[in-house]
Specification:
Elements: E1 7-11, H1 16-28, E2 32-41, E3 46-47, H2 54-64, E4 68-73, H3 79-95, E5 98-102, H4 109-119, E6 125-127, H5 135-144, E7 148-155, H6 170-175, E8 189-195, E9 205-213, E10 216-223
Parallel strand pairs: 1-2, 1-5, 2-4, 5-6
Antiparallel strand pairs: 2-3, 7-8, 7-10, 9-10
Length: 287
């Protein structure tokens, strides 16, 4: 009789680390990954911290064959509300017989310890398949696997604004300034995966408007279902000389809070993960 594998959820950020963690877990075959859990800032309809549109998130999970479990958080969101909603999601998972949650953390020990602390006694065991893998070889392994991603958010203290929208590839790794982690594990950048071995097909996106706000540069990746925009593969990299503007009035993709019909991209300060009450800057479920 075939032995039943433990059921697991992947903590899914829309980015490369969680995507490659899923790839490695599926290759090992130890767990039955039955869903993806993602915090979404409900005011904006975007993935917390990464700023990726919810329709792209849904398309990713469909391509990965994973039911999506969104955990909506308000804006602004006190850390107590954030943790309470995540605790509810964990409790529901336990009731469904799920015993593990997979994270894409690489080397930040305080984040790992916080996750372990929050999950202790819940019935969910955290799994860290990429833990302490050297990040430059890991970045090259991600690229070699066929994974394709764009930089959705960049910290302007660490990277020039023109990096927003660029593809995560060997050329980008060569261009990273000294001191920037090749996987952006210190928050230098966050990504959105559009293709790779975990997907049944490429996610067709185009690189839309780019803005600079609150110390971060954003590229608005837009789902291109009919593939009328961009290259034949459905994606386009922002050119280095694309104008990056500081928004002062509502626009088609990015509006200022309280004035636009379409909500702005969240910044790190828009999420519970960055509230001062959190023991670490990213919170327990940063993906």
């Amino acid at each position: 009789m075939k032995q039943t594998r433990p059921k697991a959820l992947i903590s899914w950020s829309s980015g490369k680390d969680s995507a490659f963690a899923l790839h490695e877990v599926r290759r090992a075959g130890e767990f039955d990954v039955v869903g993806a859990v993602t915090t979404v800032t409900e005011t904006f309809g975007r993935v917390s911290i990464h700023g990726v549109r919810q329709e792209i998130l849904q398309a990713q999970c469909e391509a990965a064959g994973l039911p999506l479990r969104t955990v909506p958080i308000p804006y602004p969101c006190p850390n107590a509300i954030y943790e309470a909603r995540m605790a509810e999601a964990v409790a529901r998972a336990v009731q469904e017989g799920i015993t593990h949650m997979i994270f894409g953390d690489l080397f930040l020990a305080d984040i790992k310890a916080y996750r372990e602390q929050k999950l202790a006694g819940t019935g969910i065991t955290p799994v860290f398949p990429l833990w302490l893998r050297p990040t430059l070889p890991l970045a090259h392994a991600m690229i070699a696997s066929g994974m394709e991603a764009h930089l959705a958010t960049v910290d302007l203290k660490k990277l020039p604004a023109q990096f927003a929208g660029r593809k995560f590839d060997s050329r980008l790794l060569d261009d990273l300034p000294e001191g920037v982690d090749p996987c952006g594990e210190n928050g230098e950048f966050h990504t959105c995966v559009v293709a790779g071995p975990i997907f049944s097909h490429r996610i067709p996106v185009t690189c839309g408007e780019r803005v600079e706000r609150d110390g971060y540069g954003y590229c608005d990746l837009v789902l291109n279902d009919n593939r009328r925009v961009g290259k034949a593969n459905g994606s386009r990299e922002c050119a280095p000389d694309d104008k990056l503007r500081v928004p002062t009035k509502p626009s088609r993709f990015f509006g200022m809070v309280g004035t636009a019909q379409r909500a702005p991209l969240p910044t790190l300060r828009d999420t519970a993960d960055s509230t001062p009450a959190a023991p670490v800057a990213s919170g327990p479920w940063r993906q």
